[in-house]
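Input structure tokens:
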């Protein structure tokens, strides 16, 4: 431990101490307690017997590199949002203010084991759809316990949020859009729900109709949408720019481009091998998968170590040769209970030796793989290698 840490504590400790002071001063708070293991603050409101938990992991990450005033303002905003009681809101009151939002697949999963994550469902690969309650100065994520309070189903919540979003999408489409060839950057100031528009059925297809071109939409962070017509020469330089924005974003979403398919549904932009965008588009998909599985690997590994769970969390490895599409690989080590990410290829390891790269589709065809419940991105638990006759077939499909 360094001198600074010994004198003043770690950055997490100092951040938690500041959050504790701010929470203690919040109106209506009578008692607070910091839980270092959870990296969270338990706060009791006046008259309440159970605490409200303020988890700090996400906001700590968001505030890295911020100045003191910006950090203080962000913590204050978080405390105000969480400590302002809204449990008395009825379904009729809250329904018009529900909005869907697009977030990274691992969003909300960085807390301790047992923490209730926000209500969500799959949107496109490695992105999920969540629902928030839109308020004048903030948004609050809907969690599963609120469904019991409102006596509604998850499907009803998502449907109401999509219905409210559709009105925003219709207003967006009614504006005058530029002709083919224009590059459009939409910057959300906090209440426009621009990135959510990709969840509105027909919105992206409608933009394409208005601009008379196939449009690729990028959402590098929660506040930015970039719309670009697909040209004959492709846009490899734009992919590089978007990847940089995604990597530098405090709250990144995706470096992948998205298009409307023939039915108007949003899907990842995946041009054919002879298209100039084929290699950069594939790289963007691999970068997103590697980012999400990487975050999940770090969190699961830390939680398993803390709770003495003897399971190895296998990494998703990204690789690419110059001017070739990027690929992902994971390793199956014989005799070790592991959680495998879904990769393009699986390499097999025994006694420190690695052989082959077997396409995932062949592994899934020859081996019964069952997804682990509640994990997103998806993982599969494995242990010993398959039977020798199965291994012989797998070897036959190895690409190297």
């Amino acid at each position: 431990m360094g001198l600074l840490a010994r004198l003043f504590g770690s950055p997490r400790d100092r951040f938690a101490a500041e959050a504790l002071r701010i929470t203690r001063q919040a109106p209506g708070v009578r008692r607070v307690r910091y839980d270092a293991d959870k990296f969270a603050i338990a706060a009791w409101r006046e008259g309440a017997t159970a605490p409200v938990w303020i988890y700090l992991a996400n906001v700590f990450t968001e505030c890295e590199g911020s100045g003191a005033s910006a950090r203080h303002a962000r913590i204050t905003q978080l405390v105000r949002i969480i400590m302002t009681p809204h449990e008395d809101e009825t379904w009729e009151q809250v329904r018009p203010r529900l909005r869907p939002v697009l977030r990274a697949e691992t969003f909300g999963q960085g807390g301790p084991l047992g923490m209730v994550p926000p209500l969500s469902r799959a949107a496109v690969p490695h992105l999920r759809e969540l629902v928030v309650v839109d308020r004048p100065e903030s948004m609050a994520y809907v969690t599963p316990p609120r469904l019991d309070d409102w006596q509604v189903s998850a499907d009803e919540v998502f449907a109401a949020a999509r219905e409210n979003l559709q009105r925003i999408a219709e207003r967006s489409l009614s504006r005058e859009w530029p002709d083919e060839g224009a590059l459009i950057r939409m910057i959300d100031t906090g209440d426009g729900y621009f990135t959510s528009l990709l969840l509105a059925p027909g919105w992206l297809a409608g933009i394409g109709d208005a601009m008379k071109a196939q449009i690729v939409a990028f959402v590098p962070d929660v506040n930015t949408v970039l719309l670009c017509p697909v040209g004959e020469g492709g846009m490899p330089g734009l992919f590089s720019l978007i990847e940089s924005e995604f990597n530098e974003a405090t709250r990144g979403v995706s470096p992948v481009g998205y298009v409307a398919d023939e039915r108007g549904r949003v899907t990842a932009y995946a041009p054919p091998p002879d298209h100039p965008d084929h290699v950069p588009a594939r790289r963007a998909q691999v970068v997103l998968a590697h980012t999400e599985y990487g975050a999940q690997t770090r969190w699961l590994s830390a939680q398993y170590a803390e709770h003495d769970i003897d399971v190895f969390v296998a990494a998703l490895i990204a690789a690419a040769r110059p001017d070739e599409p990027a690929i992902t690989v994971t390793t199956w080590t014989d005799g070790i209970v592991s959680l495998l990410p879904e990769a393009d290829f699986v390499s097999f390891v025994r006694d420190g030796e690695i052989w082959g790269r077997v396409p995932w589709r062949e592994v899934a065809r020859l081996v019964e793989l069952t997804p682990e419940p509640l994990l997103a991105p998806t993982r599969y638990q494995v242990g010993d290698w398959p039977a020798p006759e199965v291994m012989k077939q797998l070897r036959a499909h190895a690409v190297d």
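The chain has three domains: 1-85, 169-288, 291-396. Residues 291-396 form one domain.
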